[in-house]
Design a protein that fits this description.
Number of domains: 1
Largest sheet: none
InterPro entries: ABC-2_transporter_component, ABC2_TM, ABC2_TM_bact-type
Keywords: Cell membrane, Membrane, Transmembrane, Transmembrane helix, Transport
Strand content: under 5%
Order of helices and strands: HHHHHHHH
Structural class: mainly alpha
Distance between the termini: 20 Å
Protein name: ABC transmembrane type-2 domain-containing protein
Radius of gyration: 18 Å
Subcellular location: Cell membrane
Helix content: over 70%
Membrane topology: Multi-pass membrane protein
Number of strands: 0
Length: 176
């Protein structure tokens, strides 16, 4: 989000808009470096989990990475959506933090999801991290295969689709 807002502030986004590139292509061009970063971070996480903490990986690596790809795209699209709303880098950072805090608190990362009040579970269900954490636990600790995580991947895919559509619509509005 911050990188895209920075382009707006510097005026280089105007140059991108004046080229014959479609909004989807601009979005992909801005997001692809972060895909690489996401893969590196996940690789480090998996190696550290196994070597430093002896966390097993019983399930399908393919299942893990299919779910990871959906989760990564959902998060990158959320960043892109934030960049279409934010007017400054500071505002983009604040909005990013505003989405990060509920993700940490309501996804089941810090507190057990089942122990949360109903309203918190409802909000948590709309957060991609909730489903990704379930997916990771199922694959790594319970030996889940793709067929076992279809529900979690479907939930992430639906949330991702909503965010992508909202980001593209909002981006097109900012072009007008």
């Amino acid at each position: 989000a911050v990188a895209i807002v920075k382009e707006d502030e510097k005026g280089t986004m105007e140059m991108l808009i004046s080229t014959p590139v479609r909004p989807v292509e601009v979005m992909l061009g801005k997001i692809l470096p972060y895909v690489f970063v996401g893969y590196v971070q996940t690789g480090v996480f998996l190696v550290a989990a196994q070597l430093m903490f002896a966390v097993p990986f019983y399930g399908s690596a393919l299942a893990f990475f299919l779910g990871f790809n959906l989760y990564l795209v959902a998060n990158l699209a959320l960043g892109f959506l934030i960049s279409t709303v934010a007017r400054s880098q500071m505002q983009a950072m604040q909005l990013s933090f505003f989405t990060l805090l509920p993700t940490i608190l309501l996804s089941g990362f810090m507190f057990p999801f089942a122990g949360m009040p109903g309203w918190a579970q409802t909000i948590g269900t709309a957060i991609p991290a909730t489903h990704f954490l379930r997916l990771v636990r199922k694959v790594m600790l319970k030996g889940a295969q793709i067929s076992d995580i279809v529900g979690d991947m479907g939930a992430i895919a639906i949330i991702m689709a909503v965010i992508v559509v909202a980001a593209l619509l909002r981006y097109r509005q900012t072009l007008d």
